[in-house]
Amino acid sequence: MRRKIFGLLMLITLSVSGKGFQTSFEGDSSNYLLLNFALQIEITDAVDQMYNFNFHKAEVEFNWLKYNYPEHPLPYFLYGISTWWQMMPNLDKVGDLGDEFLAYMDTAVVKSEKLLEADENNIEALFFLAGSYGFKGRYHSERKSWGKAAGAGRLALKYLKKIKGNESFSPEILFGDALFNYYSIWIRENYPMLRPVLMFFPKGDKQLGIKQMEEVSANAFYTRVEAIYFLMRIKAFEEKNTAEGLRLGTYIFNQYPNNPYFHRFYARMLYNSGKRLKAEAESKEILHRLDSGMLGYEETSGRYASFFLGHINKGRGNWEEAEKYYLQTLKFSEESEAEDAGYALYARLHLAEYYVEEKRYDEASPLITSIRKNTRRRSATYKKARALAKEIKRNRKR
Questions:
Q1: Residue ranges, CATH 1.25.40.10, the chain
Q2: Beta carbons of 24 and 183 less than 8 angstroms apart
Q3: Residue ranges in the chain modelled with pLDDT below 50
Q4: 246-397 — its CATH code?
Q5: With helix as H, strand as E and coil as C, how does 12-69 read?
Q6: Fewest beta carbons less than 10 Å away: which of 95, 119, 149, 280?
C-alpha cells in the first residue's frame, strides 16, 4: 500500500507543472530532434522492436542514432527506456539492469545539461531532463528508495516548470499534463488521507486528463506507447471500464505480440470480460512461452496465467485441472516472492474450499493459515478462511 500511495504522489509531482499550458512555442525548431519527422521515420522500426521485446534489433538502430548524434540525450534516453521495458515484467527483480538503466538516464541528464549550457531555453533539453528524472523517480519508488525517488521527483518538477507555456512545441509535453489532470482528482477521491498534501497542488480535471492522454496516444511518437499503457490501466482499473480496457489491451497486444506485459494484460482483460475461451488460449500460450524461455516471460506472468486457467476449470467443475493450475499459481507466487498477491490468496482459498469439501483437512489447514496471515481481519477472504477453519474443527470433532 505504501508503495502504491507513494507512486501516485510521484505521478502528481512529476506532472504538476504541465497544468496551465497556455502559450505557443515560437522559437526555432530546426535543430530539435523531437520535431525531426525524417528521424522519426528512420527509427520507427527500432522503437517498435523495443516495445516488441526485440531489444537487440532496437539497440542496433539506437547505436546508429548515437553515432550520428553523439552529444544529444535522445539515444541515451531511448537506451534507458529499452532497459526499463526489459525490467517491466517484474520490477521487483531487476538485477544488473537497474544499474544499467540509471547509467543511461544519468548520461541523458549530462547531455541535456550541456545543451542547456549553450542555450538555457532549450525546450528539448528541458524535456529530456524532466523525462530522465521522472523515470528515475519511478524506478526508485518501485525499489522503495523513497528519498531517492523524492529527490528525482523534485528535479523533474524543476525542469517541467521551465517548459510551462510551450505545449504546442510537441504532443510529447502534453503527457505530463494528462497524468496530472487525471491523478490529482483520482487520488483525492480514493485516498482521503492525502488531501492535506494535495492542498499545495492545483486541482486537475479527470475527463480532460483522459482526453489529453488519448491525444498523446494518437499523436505523440516517443511517449505514445507510454500513454497507451497508462490509458488502458486507467480505463480498466480506475474507471472500471473493462470493455475499453479490453479494446486498448487488444490493440497494444496486436501491435506488440511478444511483449509479455501487454500479453499478460490482454489475457487479464479477456478473463475479466468473461471471454473464457480466449483467456484460456492466451493463458496457455503465456505458460508455453515461459516454459520455452522466451524473453520477458517469468513468474509473474505465470502466476496470472495459472490462476486464470485454474478458475476457468473450476467453473467447469474440472477439479483435476483446476487443482493443478491453482497449485502452479502458488508455485509461481513463491518464486516471485508474491505470496500475498491477490491471485495467490484466491488460489489458496479455492483450493482450501475444495480440500474441505473432499475432507482433505491436512492439505486445507496450511492454506487457511496462510490466508489469515496475509489478509486483514475485516476482509471477505479472511472471514471465509476463518469459517473454513471452524468447519474443519467441527468435522474433526465428529
A1: 246-397
A2: no
A3: 1-6, 9, 12-29
A4: 1.25.40.10
A5: HHHHHHHCCCCCCCCCCCCCCHHHCHHHHHHHHHHHHHHHCCCHHHHHHHHHHHHHHC
A6: 95
Cell of 185: 482528482
Q: Are 245 and 269 in contact (CB under 8 A)?
A: yes
Grid-cell match 485454474, residue found: 310
Instruction: Name every residue whose Cβ is closer than 8 Å to that of residue 222 and which is 6 or more positions away in sequence.
Output: 34, 47, 78, 172
The model carries a pTM of 0.86
Q: How many CB atoms lie within 10 A of CB 261?
A: 20
Q: What is the pLDDT of residues 75-133, one digit of tens each?
A: 999 999 999 999 998 888 888 999 999 999 999 999 999 999 998 888 889 889 988 99
**Helices then strands (H, E): number in the chain?**
19, 0
